[in-house]
Write a structure and sequence with these properties.
CATH architecture: 3-Layer(aba) Sandwich
Order of helices and strands: HEHEEEHEHEHE
Number of helices: 5
Oligomer: single chain
Strand content: 5-15%
Radius of gyration: 19 Å
Number of domains: 1
CATH superfamily: Rhodanese-like domain
CATH class: Alpha Beta
């Protein structure tokens, strides 16, 4: 074998090994409740897992509701009175519904209601409508939210694990998000 052949073999092993690194993250039975920015499983039982090009094709077709679950940054505590504070913009996939803070492993009752109401709006009450959940790459929040939608009876759930990081890397369009209002806001 030539040195090129050997080098290609080593490179192929590294690429294949890296591609399957996620395969070794076990899919838990319940929700992930800590360390949300960590390698994620390659699967989500009951859901379809999308790569960037598949997500982009689905987005372009308008055939699914995209749901961003990245948390909303909290207002810093202890700001002096009169301090003007502006949230950093959240660029996300255009047309997505942003339901911040709904991807945690345990949700307060009000946040769970907010999530369910958001899904009802996104699906127009059709539990068979395709729903695509995402946040950022290596983020368990979108995995949790997609799993929660399955538990709540949505039958056509997809999970896009690369999220806005993969979308941006593919140079796909993005827009600044506004959180979906909560009841009473």
């Amino acid at each position: 074998m030539s040195w090129r052949g050997a080098a290609f073999g080593v490179l192929a092993m590294l690429v294949v090994g890296g591609a399957h690194a996620q395969d070794h993250v076990p899919e838990p039975d319940g929700y992930r409740t800590d360390n949300y920015r960590a390698p994620v499983p390659a699967t989500l039982r009951g859901a379809r897992v999308l790569g960037t090009m598949e997500a982009a094709t689905l987005w372009r077709s308008g055939g699914a509701a995209f749901i961003d679950v990245l948390p909303r940054p909290p207002k810093p505590s202890g700001l002096p009175a009169g301090t003007i504070w502006r949230e950093a913009p959240r660029p996300h996939i255009p047309g997505s519904l942003w339901l911040p803070d709904t991807g945690y492993g345990a949700l307060a009752a009000g946040t769970e209601d907010y999530f369910r109401q958001g899904l009802a709006r996104a699906s127009a009450g059709d539990r068979d409508r395709p729903l695509v959940f995402y946040c950022q790459a290596a983020c368990w929040m979108s995995w949790n939210a997609a799993k929660r939608a399955l538990k709540d009876g949505y039958s056509n759930v997809a999970w896009y694990p690369q999220g806005t990081d993969g979308w941006r890397e593919a140079d796909l369009p993005m827009q600044d998000a506004r959180p979906e209002p909560r009841a009473g806001e």
